């Protein structure tokens, strides 16, 4: 049965929403957090294993130093206090994808704590998101439910477990309650997640591909009558792995909880799940508190000691952060604030930068990624970077246009060929003979015929009325199957008329 919802605008007038995000970032180390098992996305199930990642008796964990350094980098980027001494704990719960029956995480002594992240909203304003902690832990395996709809457990005949992901290093970034967001709660959450994604990519510590599970978030939402009241009971929507999903989860939960509270109901402290198909959340299990996990220090791991000198060495090698990079690129590309915001909103900054590095102009790269390719991605329901075309391909198309070998129409056909898997732009051009007509005799003959067939237009052009020039160019284009250069045609017409 569909749950009752209140209009969002009414909900945020009547209640004060408070949100929180627990973001799991999978680190791109070569091996797992506590053992030398190799990590590879999409590998054959249950092939990336050691006795440690299977939790076999007698196996002992050894910390991955690179993962610790990655955590320090992220702590610096999030303005955290980095603890000199931190500790791993056992978080006990019994799931089939957790072979040890406990997760190795950090509890009361995390590596990073008490930080913040400033995020830029669509109108250019800055909102500061407080960070509670950014701790290190290992991931669970993955359950695949067979026989149900869309791989969900409901209606499944059986489940398969792949332990390849078990033991993969994670950093979990936990915000403090985000207060004062009001009607912009979803926008703030989306901006925070995108900023966080950009940071971990810039640091080189994660691929942060949400569709591959490299980055996912648990979304907490609660409502209270007014900002001075205690925090309300929260719901926690688990493992949301898209920016839009996170934003829509927050809007839905605000509407659902507002309707429930207005009718005198009670919000349950529970886990929920976002259903992309129905655009709703569904109840899971009652949410347990930290005590229920029976945390205690892992006796197989000594405390982690991070010296100030080590932190300083890492700090010296920190790369340019995303906001500074955006400002620099905006200046280099001479984009307006609105143009740069369009680039950011389209998630095209990296693609445009790589296209420019491959030899295209910034304006040309933006035209393709925010125009033709953006429409293609939207039509297919994929991200720009998932399209089967590379920045180098786009730069090659731009070079072919600049050299006069392609016009805009032929360039679009060439890009369509690349997207269809026909090869590189150069290969597509050769395969279909897309090059602009270089034979001046053939072009001149087509112009002569167009002028002869349209004497009325010729008279208008001779009198200085240039509006009908498009008709002549169109006739020549049809005669040359779209392979004439419009500027060359226009110049030839004017030469013949004068």
UniProtKB/TrEMBL annotation:
Q: Which reaction does it catalyse?
A: L-glutamyl-tRNA(Gln) + L-glutamine + ATP + H2O = L-glutaminyl-tRNA(Gln) + L-glutamate + ADP + phosphate + H(+); L-aspartyl-tRNA(Asn) + L-glutamine + ATP + H2O = L-asparaginyl-tRNA(Asn) + L-glutamate + ADP + phosphate + 2 H(+)
- Give a Pfam family name: GatB_N
Do you know which SMART domains this protein is assigned to? Answer: GatB_Yqey
Q: What class of enzyme is it?
A: ligase
Q: Which domain of life does the protein's organism represent?
A: Bacteria
Q: Where is the Asn/Gln amidotransferase domain?
A: 350-497
Molecular-function GO term, any one: transferase activity
EC assignment: the record states 6.3.5.-
Print the keywords alphabetically: ATP-binding, Ligase, Nucleotide-binding, Protein biosynthesis, Transferase
Q: Which family does it belong to?
A: Belongs to the GatB/GatE family. GatB subfamily.
> Which NCBIfam families did the record assign?
gatB, PRK05477.1-2, PRK05477.1-3, PRK05477.1-4
Subunit text: Heterotrimer of A, B and C subunits.
The protein's name in its UniProt record: Aspartyl/glutamyl-tRNA(Asn/Gln) amidotransferase subunit B
Q: Which organism is it from?
A: Bifidobacterium thermophilum
């Amino acid at each position: 049965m569909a749950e009752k919802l209140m209009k969002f605008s009414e909900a945020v007038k009547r209640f004060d929403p408070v949100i929180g995000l627990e973001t799991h970032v999978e680190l791109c180390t070569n091996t797992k957090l506590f053992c030398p098992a190799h990590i590879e996305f999409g590998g054959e199930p249950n092939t990336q294993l050691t006795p440690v990642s299977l939790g076999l008796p007698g196996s002992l964990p050894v910390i991955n130093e690179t993962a610790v350094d990655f955590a320090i980098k992220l702590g610096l980027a999030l303005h955290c206090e980095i603890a000199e001494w931190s500790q791993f704990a056992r978080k006990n719960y019994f799931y089939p994808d957790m072979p040890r029956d406990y997760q190795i995480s950090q509890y009361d002594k995390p590596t990073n704590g008490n930080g913040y992240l400033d995020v830029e909203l669509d109108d250019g304003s800055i909102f500061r998101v407080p960070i509670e902690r950014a701790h290190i832990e290992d991931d669970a395996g993955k359950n695949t439910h067979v026989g149900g709809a869309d791989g969900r457990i409901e209606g499944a005949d059986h489940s398969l477990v792949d332990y390849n992901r078990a033991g993969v290093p994670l950093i979990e970034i936990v915000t403090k309650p985000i207060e004062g967001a009001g009607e912009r709660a979803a926008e703030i959450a989306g901006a925070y997640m995108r900023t966080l994604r950009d940071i971990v990519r810039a640091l080189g510590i994660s691929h942060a591909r949400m569709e591959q599970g490299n980055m996912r978030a648990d979304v907490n939402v609660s409502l209270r009558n007014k900002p001075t009241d205690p925090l309300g009971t929260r719901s926690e929507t688990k493992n949301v792995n898209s920016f839009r999903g996170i934003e829509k989860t927050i809007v839905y939960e605000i509407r659902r909880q507002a309707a429930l509270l207005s009718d005198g109901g009670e919000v349950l402290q529970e886990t929920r799940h976002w259903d992309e198909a129905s655009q709703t959340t569904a109840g899971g299990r009652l949410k347990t508190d930290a005590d229920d996990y029976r945390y205690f220090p892992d006796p197989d791991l000594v405390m982690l000691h991070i010296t100030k000198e080590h932190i300083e060495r890492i700090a010296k090698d920190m790369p340019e952060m995303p906001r500074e990079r955006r400002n620099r690129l905006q200046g280099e590309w001479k984009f307006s604030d609105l143009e740069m915001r369009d680039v950011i909103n389209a998630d095209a900054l990296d693609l445009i930068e790589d296209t420019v590095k491959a030899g295209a102009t910034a304006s040309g790269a933006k035209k393709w990624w925010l125009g033709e390719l953006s429409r293609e991605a939207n039509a297919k329901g994929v991200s720009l970077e998932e399209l089967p075309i590379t920045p180098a391909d786009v730069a090659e198309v731009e070079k072919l246009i600049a050299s006069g070998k392609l016009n805009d129409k032929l360039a679009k056909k060439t890009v369509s060929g690349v997207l269809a898997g026909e090869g590189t732009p150069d290969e597509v051009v050769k395969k279909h003979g897309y090059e602009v007509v270089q034979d001046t005799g053939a072009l001149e003959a087509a112009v002569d015929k167009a002028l002869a067939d349209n004497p009325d237009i010729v008279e208008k052009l001779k009198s200085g009325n240039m509006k009908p020039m498009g008709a002549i160019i169109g006739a020549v284009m049809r005669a040359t199957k779209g392979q004439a250069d419009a500027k060359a045609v226009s110049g030839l017409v004017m030469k013949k008329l004068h």
